[in-house]
Amino acid sequence: MTVLRALSVVSMNPDAEIDHGAPLTPYRQLAEILRAQIQRGDWQPGRMLPSEAQLVQRYGIARTTVRRGLGLLADEGWAYAVPQRGWFVTDPLPPSPETPASPRVADNSAGHSPKSVLIRRR
After folding, report:
1. How confident is the model over 62-104, as pLDDT tens digits?
2. DSSP sequence for 85-121
3. What residues have CB less than 8 Å from 9, skipping those under 6 apart?
4. What's this model's pTM, rounded to 2 decimal places?
5. Which residues make Cβ contacts (< 8 Å) with residue 82, sequence separation at least 6?
6. Do the Cβ atoms of 29 and 16 come closer than 8 Å?
7. d(CA 108, CA 76)
8. Which residue, 10, 58, 89, 113, is most buried by CB atoms nearer than 10 A?
9. Which residues contact 3 (CB under 8 A, 6 or more apart)?
10. Rama region for 111: left / alpha / beta (φ>0; ψ in -120 to 50; rest)
11. Residues facing 88 on adjacent strands
């Protein structure tokens, strides 16, 4: 997870608007807003998200931008598409950034750090 990604997860307001002048691209802003709304409980796992057309109208962005944002949510495990139906919240939800996803992550949070060794080719 990049530093920018980690910061945006913590600070994104679920009621935020798209800021076209921000360093974060509009589709990433949309994904962050929708993720925050899912985490807040606006849409329960297994429930349909607003339609692409509704998101276009609500946020004033292009349909391709909405699709990229929803695709990013899908790539991260927060949503999935059903052809001819729409986008749905995954069930179960993926772990939050604060929740360890694996024992290795848990070890890192317990003060252990991974080690790497540089092997030089001769």
Report:
1. 999 999 999 999 999 999 999 999 999 999 888 876 544 444 4
2. TEEEE-SSPPPPTTS-SSHHHHHHHTT----------
3. 32, 35, 97
4. 0.71
5. 88
6. yes
7. 21
8. 89
9. none
10. left
11. 48, 80
